[in-house]
Amino acid sequence: MPSVSPIARHCARAASDQLPGVEHYIAVCASSKLLPVPLVPEVTIYAAENAYDVWEITRLGDDADEPPVPYWSFPWAGGQALARHLLDHPELVRGRRVLDLAAGSGLVAIAAMKAGARSAVANDVDPFAAAAQEMNARANETTIEISQRDMLDETVTANQFDLVVAGDVCYERRLTDRLIAFLRRAKENGVDVLLADPGRAYLPRHQLDEIASYDVATTLALEGVEGKRTTIWTPVTDCD
Protein backbone atom coordinates (compact mmCIF):
# COMPACT_ATOMS: atom_id res chain seq x y z
CA MET A 1 0.00 0.00 0.00
CA PRO A 2 1.39 3.46 -0.84
CA SER A 3 2.34 5.75 2.03
CA VAL A 4 -0.54 8.03 3.05
CA SER A 5 1.37 10.67 5.01
CA PRO A 6 1.49 13.62 4.91
CA ILE A 7 -1.50 13.74 2.55
CA ALA A 8 -3.66 11.56 4.79
CA ARG A 9 -3.25 14.01 7.67
CA HIS A 10 -4.67 16.77 5.47
CA CYS A 11 -7.55 14.49 4.47
CA ALA A 12 -8.31 13.61 8.10
CA ARG A 13 -8.58 17.27 9.00
CA ALA A 14 -10.88 17.86 6.04
CA ALA A 15 -13.16 15.06 7.19
CA SER A 16 -14.44 17.03 10.19
CA ASP A 17 -16.89 19.09 8.11
CA GLN A 18 -17.71 16.58 5.36
CA LEU A 19 -20.10 13.64 5.14
CA PRO A 20 -17.46 10.92 4.48
CA GLY A 21 -15.47 9.46 7.37
CA VAL A 22 -11.74 9.71 7.89
CA GLU A 23 -11.34 6.19 6.51
CA HIS A 24 -12.74 7.29 3.13
CA TYR A 25 -10.23 10.13 2.79
CA ILE A 26 -7.36 7.89 3.82
CA ALA A 27 -8.42 5.21 1.32
CA VAL A 28 -8.54 7.76 -1.51
CA CYS A 29 -5.07 9.01 -0.58
CA ALA A 30 -3.66 5.50 -0.31
CA SER A 31 -5.02 4.24 -3.62
CA SER A 32 -4.51 7.22 -5.95
CA LYS A 33 -2.34 10.20 -6.70
CA LEU A 34 -2.85 13.63 -8.21
CA LEU A 35 -2.60 13.44 -11.98
CA PRO A 36 -3.62 15.78 -14.81
CA VAL A 37 -6.71 14.71 -16.73
CA PRO A 38 -5.62 13.78 -20.28
CA LEU A 39 -8.23 15.80 -22.21
CA VAL A 40 -8.46 18.47 -19.50
CA PRO A 41 -4.89 19.19 -18.30
CA GLU A 42 -6.15 22.32 -16.54
CA VAL A 43 -7.59 19.96 -13.90
CA THR A 44 -5.79 17.43 -11.72
CA ILE A 45 -7.62 14.70 -9.83
CA TYR A 46 -6.75 11.87 -7.48
CA ALA A 47 -6.62 9.02 -9.99
CA ALA A 48 -5.60 5.38 -9.65
CA GLU A 49 -3.16 3.50 -11.83
CA ASN A 50 -4.69 0.10 -11.05
CA ALA A 51 -8.37 -0.57 -10.36
CA TYR A 52 -7.63 -3.73 -8.40
CA ASP A 53 -5.48 -1.81 -5.93
CA VAL A 54 -8.37 0.59 -5.35
CA TRP A 55 -10.82 -2.27 -4.77
CA GLU A 56 -8.51 -3.78 -2.16
CA ILE A 57 -7.93 -0.53 -0.28
CA THR A 58 -11.53 0.70 -0.37
CA ARG A 59 -13.17 -2.58 0.64
CA LEU A 60 -13.31 -1.59 4.36
CA GLY A 61 -14.73 -4.91 5.48
CA ASP A 62 -17.25 -5.36 2.68
CA ASP A 63 -17.89 -8.79 1.17
CA ALA A 64 -14.73 -9.73 -0.72
CA ASP A 65 -16.84 -10.89 -3.65
CA GLU A 66 -18.56 -7.50 -3.96
CA PRO A 67 -16.01 -4.72 -3.51
CA PRO A 68 -17.21 -1.18 -4.19
CA VAL A 69 -16.72 -0.08 -7.78
CA PRO A 70 -14.29 2.89 -7.69
CA TYR A 71 -15.85 5.04 -10.40
CA TRP A 72 -14.38 8.11 -8.65
CA SER A 73 -10.81 6.94 -9.23
CA PHE A 74 -10.56 7.36 -13.01
CA PRO A 75 -11.28 10.21 -15.44
CA TRP A 76 -13.84 8.36 -17.57
CA ALA A 77 -14.35 9.37 -21.18
CA GLY A 78 -17.76 10.97 -20.65
CA GLY A 79 -16.57 13.15 -17.80
CA GLN A 80 -13.49 14.22 -19.74
CA ALA A 81 -15.58 15.24 -22.75
CA LEU A 82 -18.05 17.20 -20.62
CA ALA A 83 -15.30 18.96 -18.69
CA ARG A 84 -13.55 19.92 -21.95
CA HIS A 85 -16.83 21.13 -23.43
CA LEU A 86 -17.62 23.38 -20.46
CA LEU A 87 -14.13 24.87 -20.35
CA ASP A 88 -14.19 25.52 -24.10
CA HIS A 89 -17.72 26.99 -23.91
CA PRO A 90 -17.79 28.92 -20.62
CA GLU A 91 -21.00 30.70 -21.69
CA LEU A 92 -22.79 27.45 -20.86
CA VAL A 93 -22.00 27.79 -17.16
CA ARG A 94 -20.90 31.36 -16.45
CA GLY A 95 -22.88 32.68 -13.48
CA ARG A 96 -25.09 29.58 -13.47
CA ARG A 97 -25.96 26.81 -10.96
CA VAL A 98 -24.74 23.40 -12.09
CA LEU A 99 -25.62 19.88 -10.92
CA ASP A 100 -23.06 17.18 -11.77
CA LEU A 101 -25.08 13.97 -11.48
CA ALA A 102 -23.37 10.65 -10.63
CA ALA A 103 -20.30 12.83 -10.39
CA GLY A 104 -17.60 10.31 -9.49
CA SER A 105 -14.41 12.32 -9.00
CA GLY A 106 -16.24 15.63 -9.36
CA LEU A 107 -14.25 16.45 -12.50
CA VAL A 108 -17.15 18.08 -14.34
CA ALA A 109 -18.28 20.12 -11.32
CA ILE A 110 -14.71 21.38 -10.89
CA ALA A 111 -14.47 22.26 -14.60
CA ALA A 112 -17.77 24.12 -14.32
CA MET A 113 -16.41 26.24 -11.47
CA LYS A 114 -13.21 26.92 -13.38
CA ALA A 115 -15.36 28.04 -16.33
CA GLY A 116 -17.17 30.57 -14.15
CA ALA A 117 -20.19 28.78 -12.71
CA ARG A 118 -21.94 30.47 -9.79
CA SER A 119 -22.11 27.12 -7.96
CA ALA A 120 -21.68 23.43 -8.70
CA VAL A 121 -23.06 20.44 -6.83
CA ALA A 122 -21.29 17.08 -7.23
CA ASN A 123 -23.84 14.36 -6.51
CA ASP A 124 -22.81 10.74 -5.95
CA VAL A 125 -24.05 8.16 -3.43
CA ASP A 126 -20.56 6.67 -2.90
CA PRO A 127 -18.82 8.11 0.21
CA PHE A 128 -15.42 7.44 -1.39
CA ALA A 129 -16.52 9.62 -4.31
CA ALA A 130 -17.57 12.36 -1.88
CA ALA A 131 -14.15 12.25 -0.23
CA ALA A 132 -12.40 12.35 -3.61
CA GLN A 133 -14.58 15.26 -4.74
CA GLU A 134 -13.64 17.36 -1.74
CA MET A 135 -9.96 16.55 -2.15
CA ASN A 136 -10.02 17.20 -5.91
CA ALA A 137 -11.78 20.53 -5.42
CA ARG A 138 -9.13 21.63 -2.92
CA ALA A 139 -6.34 20.48 -5.24
CA ASN A 140 -7.80 22.67 -8.00
CA GLU A 141 -8.46 25.65 -5.68
CA THR A 142 -12.20 25.51 -6.32
CA THR A 143 -15.19 25.14 -4.04
CA ILE A 144 -17.98 22.73 -4.90
CA GLU A 145 -20.97 21.47 -2.95
CA ILE A 146 -21.16 17.74 -2.26
CA SER A 147 -24.35 15.68 -2.09
CA GLN A 148 -24.57 11.95 -1.37
CA ARG A 149 -28.31 11.42 -1.63
CA ASP A 150 -29.94 9.47 -4.44
CA MET A 151 -31.64 12.21 -6.48
CA LEU A 152 -32.87 10.15 -9.42
CA ASP A 153 -36.48 9.91 -8.26
CA GLU A 154 -36.64 13.66 -7.63
CA THR A 155 -37.61 16.44 -10.02
CA VAL A 156 -35.31 19.44 -10.27
CA THR A 157 -36.50 22.78 -11.62
CA ALA A 158 -35.04 26.01 -12.93
CA ASN A 159 -35.46 27.42 -9.41
CA GLN A 160 -32.77 25.00 -8.24
CA PHE A 161 -30.35 24.54 -11.14
CA ASP A 162 -29.64 26.09 -14.52
CA LEU A 163 -27.71 23.14 -15.95
CA VAL A 164 -27.58 19.42 -15.18
CA VAL A 165 -24.67 17.38 -16.52
CA ALA A 166 -24.01 13.64 -16.43
CA GLY A 167 -21.02 11.78 -17.88
CA ASP A 168 -20.58 8.13 -18.75
CA VAL A 169 -23.55 6.74 -16.83
CA CYS A 170 -25.36 4.48 -19.35
CA TYR A 171 -23.58 1.26 -18.44
CA GLU A 172 -26.47 -0.52 -16.63
CA ARG A 173 -30.07 -0.69 -17.81
CA ARG A 174 -31.97 0.19 -14.63
CA LEU A 175 -29.66 3.08 -13.79
CA THR A 176 -29.89 4.39 -17.36
CA ASP A 177 -33.70 4.26 -17.32
CA ARG A 178 -33.86 6.20 -14.04
CA LEU A 179 -31.24 8.70 -15.13
CA ILE A 180 -32.78 9.45 -18.54
CA ALA A 181 -36.17 9.94 -16.89
CA PHE A 182 -34.56 12.35 -14.39
CA LEU A 183 -32.85 14.31 -17.19
CA ARG A 184 -36.04 14.52 -19.23
CA ARG A 185 -37.99 15.84 -16.23
CA ALA A 186 -35.29 18.42 -15.59
CA LYS A 187 -35.36 19.65 -19.19
CA GLU A 188 -39.17 19.76 -19.21
CA ASN A 189 -38.90 22.01 -16.14
CA GLY A 190 -36.66 24.54 -17.86
CA VAL A 191 -33.23 23.19 -16.92
CA ASP A 192 -30.53 22.79 -19.58
CA VAL A 193 -29.20 19.22 -19.75
CA LEU A 194 -26.01 17.69 -21.15
CA LEU A 195 -25.22 13.97 -21.18
CA ALA A 196 -21.84 12.65 -22.39
CA ASP A 197 -21.38 9.03 -23.45
CA PRO A 198 -18.65 7.04 -25.26
CA GLY A 199 -21.03 4.46 -26.68
CA ARG A 200 -22.15 2.51 -23.63
CA ALA A 201 -24.55 -0.38 -24.21
CA TYR A 202 -27.70 1.22 -22.80
CA LEU A 203 -27.46 4.70 -24.29
CA PRO A 204 -30.95 5.52 -25.73
CA ARG A 205 -29.82 7.41 -28.82
CA HIS A 206 -33.37 7.69 -30.14
CA GLN A 207 -34.22 9.87 -27.12
CA LEU A 208 -31.29 12.24 -27.59
CA ASP A 209 -30.03 15.07 -29.82
CA GLU A 210 -26.30 15.30 -30.53
CA ILE A 211 -24.49 18.47 -29.41
CA ALA A 212 -20.77 17.78 -29.93
CA SER A 213 -18.18 14.98 -30.07
CA TYR A 214 -14.64 14.54 -28.73
CA ASP A 215 -11.92 11.95 -29.19
CA VAL A 216 -10.88 10.92 -25.68
CA ALA A 217 -7.80 8.89 -24.78
CA THR A 218 -8.61 5.83 -22.68
CA THR A 219 -6.63 2.87 -21.36
CA LEU A 220 -6.55 -0.73 -22.51
CA ALA A 221 -6.97 -1.88 -18.90
CA LEU A 222 -10.24 0.03 -18.43
CA GLU A 223 -11.79 0.10 -21.89
CA GLY A 224 -9.94 -2.43 -24.03
CA VAL A 225 -9.06 0.37 -26.47
CA GLU A 226 -6.77 3.39 -26.36
CA GLY A 227 -9.39 5.94 -27.38
CA LYS A 228 -13.13 6.47 -27.61
CA ARG A 229 -15.26 8.86 -29.63
CA THR A 230 -17.42 10.47 -26.98
CA THR A 231 -20.59 12.38 -27.79
CA ILE A 232 -22.41 15.05 -25.81
CA TRP A 233 -26.18 14.83 -26.05
CA THR A 234 -29.29 16.54 -24.76
CA PRO A 235 -32.57 14.69 -24.18
CA VAL A 236 -35.47 15.08 -26.57
CA THR A 237 -38.66 15.98 -24.69
CA ASP A 238 -42.30 16.40 -25.63
CA CYS A 239 -41.69 20.15 -25.50
CA ASP A 240 -39.07 20.05 -28.30
Structure explained in plain terms:
The protein is α/β, with parallel strands linked by helices and 240 residues long. It has a single domain, classed as Rossmann fold, CATH 3.40.50.150. It has helices at 7-14, 22-31, 51-58, 77-88, 107-114, 127-139, 173-188, 220-223, and strands at residues 33-37, 40-47, 97-101, 119-123, 145-147, 163-167, 192-197, 208-217, 227-235. The protein has a seven-stranded mixed sheet. It has a two-stranded antiparallel sheet with strand order 1-2. α2 (22-31) packs antiparallel against α3. The radius of gyration is 17 Å and the shape is globular. 47% of the residues are buried. Residues 1-18 have low confidence and may be disordered.
CATH architecture: 3-Layer(aba) Sandwich
Give the CATH superfamily: Vaccinia Virus protein VP39
Strand order of the largest sheet: 5-4-3-6-7-9-8
Q: Strand count, sense and closure of the main sheet?
A: 7 strands, mixed
Please tell me the overall pLDDT. 86
Number of helices: 8
Report the structural category: alpha/beta
CATH topology name, in short, is Rossmann fold
Broad CATH class: Alpha Beta
The dominant shape is: globular
Give the helix level as a range of percent: 25-40%
| Terminus-to-terminus distance | 52 Å
Q: Can you give me a brief rundown of this structure?
A:
With 240 residues, the chain is of the alpha/beta class.
What key phrases describe this protein's structure?
240 residues, alpha/beta, Rossmann fold, seven-stranded mixed beta sheet, two-stranded antiparallel ribbon, 9 strands, disordered N terminus
